[in-house]
Amino acid sequence: MLKKILTSGIICAALTIASLPAQAQTQPTAPSDAPASGAPASGQSSDVSAQEVQQFADALKQMRSIHESAQTQANQIIEAKGLPIPRFNEILQSRPRAQAGTDQPNAPVALSTPVSEQEQQQFDQALTEITQLQQTTEQRMEQAITTTGLEVPRFNQIFSIARQDQTLKQRIEQVLQN
Questions:
Q1: Where is the composition biased (Low complexity) (predicted)?
Q2: C-beta of residue 156 within 8 angstroms of C-beta of residue 35
């Protein structure tokens, strides 16, 4: 569930393209700022230069490090508030939240036990700090992209193409493995 808080379109790109192991305890939701994924025209893989593939892979590596650091910090925030991480996740899942791309809320998950007043305070405090961490993390990830020489819109475009183009995805994975 923490991943739902800590994910942005950028980190989903990193986790999807790079096939990195998930560090959080649940699956991410589709971010609202994820790039559109219309089917690319054939040959779009060749529109991405070798230099851009390298820059994209470099950005993914940096973003993975940023994500892992943010995940650790989020866990520390929750624990510092005195709330076990599984309980935080359970409370978070019990809250209705908008589905990505719609105004319709997801159905909340039922709690195993009611939330005490103390737990609610701990949860609210942790959530506030994690939300701030998320904003900082997203800024750091955008900066990681631009330091490689790519602009964020081009990164998102390459991501969108790679989601549909197996050849480009393989080129990216090959660079990541080296």
A1: 30-47
A2: yes
**Residue 110 identity (one-letter amino acid):** A
Q: Is the dihedral of CA 91, 93, 94, 98 positive or negative?
A: positive
Model pTM?
0.69
Tokens for 40?
């690319």
> Could you tell me how many helices (H) and strands (E) the chain has, helices first?
7, 0
Measure Cα distances from 96 to 4, 56, 84, 138, 168 in Å. Answer: 13, 35, 21, 24, 37
The CA-CA-CA angle for residues 81, 85, 86, to 5°, reads: 140
Buried b (16+ CB within 10 A) or exposed e, 40-73: beeebbeebeeebbbbbbbbbbbbbebbeebbeb
Q: What is the mean pLDDT of each run of 10 residues along the chain (178 residues)?
A: 44 41 30 38 70 96 96 96 94 76 64 91 96 96 96 94 93 92
